[in-house]
Amino acid sequence: MSVSFTLNGAAVAAPIEDEAPLLAALRGPLGLSGTRYGCGAEQCGACLVLVDGQPAYSCTLHSGVVAGRSVTTVEGLGTPEAPHPLQTAFLELQAGQCGFCLSGILLRASVLLRDKPAPTEDDVRAALDPHLCRCGSHNRIIRAVLRAAAIGQPA
Amino acid sequence: MNLAFRNAVQGGDDKPKLPGSLHVNRRLDQWLSIQPGGTVTITPGKVELGQGIITALAQIAAEELDVALPRLVVRPASTPGSPDEAVTSGSLSVQESGMAIRHACAEARAIFVGVAAQKTGVPREDIAVQDGDFVAPDGRVLGSYWSMADAALLAVEATPGDRAKPASARRIAGTSAPRLDLPAKIFGQPRFVHDMRLPGMMHARMVRPAARGATLAALRDGPLPGGATIFRDGSVLAALATQEHHAEAAAARLAARASWDAADTLPEEHAIEAWMDSAPREDSIVLERSAETPAPARRIARRFFRPFITHGSIGTSCAVATWTGDTVEIWCHSQGIYNLRADLTKALRMPADNIILHHVEGAGCYGHNGADDVALDAALIARAHPGTPIRVLWSRAEELAWGPASPAMIVDVAAEAEADGTLLRWSQQVLSNGHSGRPGRGALPTLLAASMMADGFPVPPAINPPLAGGGGAQRNAVPPYRVPALKVDMARITAMPLRTSALRGLGALVNVWAIESVMDELAAQAAEDPLAHRLRHLDDARSRDVLSRAARMADWPNRQKRDGIGMGLAVSRYKGSGAWCAAVAEIEAGERIRCKRLWLAADVGEVVNPDGSLNQIEGGAIQATSLCLLEAVRHDARNVTSDSWETYPILRFTDVPRVQAELIARPEAPPLGAGECSLGPVIAAIANAIADALGVRVTRWPFTPENIARAMDDA
Ligand code: FES
Ligand code: FES
After folding, report:
1. Residue span of the structural domain in which B87 resides
2. Is A15 on the interface with B (CB under 8 A)?
């Protein structure tokens, strides 16, 4: 009972059932904390990860589905030493309050910027619409995404 | 229940007055310690809720000690070591904790400089402190906090006297600083209590009853996944397992196998108003001022109704507990660990000394959510598994349905005025359950499981803090406008079918909406501009200032009447004693109401972290927009049915208004806290903008097409 895949660039094997949610694999045996439980029902975006570069809700996605594929979590987006431009911009604009919603939002925004390097404000709003933020940090988050777009994406 | 509340209830003492929470936690070493390695640790009793308080407190300390901000380490609150600052609530943390830290650090600086002076013979007033170094006029370094770090120096009580820097000398406090806690949250590092992993830890999920107050009658046997086991104490039921998803799956199976003795205990949703009118109640007079007034030319009587609403934290409530011998250690995101400890002593029937609580950050809570409840859940389960750390995480359904709700409210306003709209009489009657069911105050514990465990406790009805402590239902029920005759009454419903407690702003949200709606309507009747009408009824200069500023920001005088677009404004001083805020809202009335833009001006007195305060003010404004346009707790006679984000929707990115917020600088004035001041004015401004667009007064919350249609029918 083990699911093997690439996690943030490294090969991993998670001792977990195929049917277990990927969120459980990430936060459990794989020991990460950035991917968060918010609703378990694809309604808030707190658990969002990228599977082969595409957004996926890890709260409902079976671990077995990602076998042999590549998963990116917020930990794989950037580090304090080598931050993603989005992380730099979120820090510069202090885009967040409690921060619980941010991991999923950062990953979703990274897809937007990859697919559309110069988005409009409306593009950003539309892209982030599946994500809930209860602290009301939305406008700062939107500005930070636009700023990251302006800084430019890493090659 | 912050310290302001406690003092309002218990009265003061005869000790010499010290600032903020220092008065009741008087030793300097309760607040700060110097580390020889070159850092200062401050130990506030207030906690980080995502509002940025630890950064503001670090700024205040760095300022008074004259050390660079990165040298500050803020230790999260723990019992029994941290000062008891009651609850982190009511926008009082800078007043209570910040002023204590300012005074304590200023005194600590004076003590250290005094010792340096004594040792070197350099007069103390000639010694400058530069990033912790004590420097003589000739540039010689005489020592530093770090070289002289000696715990004994701070093992003294604070003394009265003003040693803190004047406002004009401040460089760090008053300048925007990045939040200390944000980087970890942006890089996904473990920081939340949810992220704690203790060796041998097991995961638990609660199984909630089929109805409010239901008792567990039977539990069918059957296999559980992942070696999961059952915890049961009376009607407190949980599944636990080594792996989290097994606990979750096992809880779902237990829910299907449990049968409950259930009864109808909630009023039907459509009959809630009638239930409130006839429920048992306790009446009180908030304020009464009689005056002879001439016969009025205008009369407005309106009833405003708001259903139950809830906090809706994005992360669900979570706690970890370990039982060792006769002591339990709990990590949780409670807003008041000492108050929680007081209720845990009652619920667990054990002495406070045997309960150790640590605050670990959670998701934003916006008031009293399930953070305290889940701590008791974890403690109960851990008691049955000595030595094993137990982590309990609430589900989304529990978070939305089983945490305390903010009570449904009815506010009846009757105003009389002269022909030109000048106020003569105002009466306001507030009816609701209590707005505070926080732990630690009464003879009975208020925690959820306390009423469900074997040999449990009845649920005490929520109360309203006295007005001097900020009030609850009656918060902001006294209009800020000049009016000769005034009567404000409050009725607290003493039956509590749904557990109620504090949500950001408490009664202010509905009271400000009601007052500002009636003021607007009076202005309209008298054909006076709503801004001018308010300004000439406001004696308070700072109210007028924020209102004028917000109006200027929105270019209020030049606004154009546009089809389907409305603009409205509102002003309020939070709690009548806190921060001032005015809002202008622009809405679009199509199939539904969309708030497009908000302009906010606030006066929070001294501002420690301007960027942080603006973040809070804007966040409150967006939350308020969501609350009034979308939110209502749905329920039937047995249960809350709005237990998912589909059934309890909140505002999403595409509907979030653009917000422009400004602070009026008052560096010399006492700090007042920014977290809650914008909510009431924003809700009222949106309601007034709807009236501007549609010519109808919306008096039922939320401001949905259904409720607006109803208002049109009633008009
Ligand atoms: S936790 Fe997956 S979308 Fe909410
Ligand atoms: S920052 Fe708290 S939920 Fe978004």
Report:
1. 3-177
2. no
